[in-house]
Design brief:
The longest helix is centred in the middle third of the chain and has 51 residues. By secondary structure, the protein is mainly alpha-helical.
Length: 63
């Protein structure tokens, strides 16, 4: 079998190109997921800090 492979994958260059595209897509997806998680974490921290500030401010005003 020329092009080496079992199931009709084509020549070696085509296989390497497809593999590289697959790896690239994985890297892009992983980076996107990590950015989204970081965004969510920062939003949660900001929300908690805002609640803490509101609690501290209202407790100081009540005295």
């Amino acid at each position: 079998m020329p092009g080496g492979g079992g199931g009709g994958g084509g020549n070696a260059g085509n296989v390497v190109l497809r593999f590289s595209a697959f790896i690239g897509a994985g890297v892009i997806c992983t980076t996107s997921i990590n950015l989204w998680r970081d965004f969510q974490r920062k939003a949660a921290l900001k929300s908690a800090a805002d609640k803490q500030l509101a609690t501290t401010t209202s407790a100081g005003a009540a005295e």
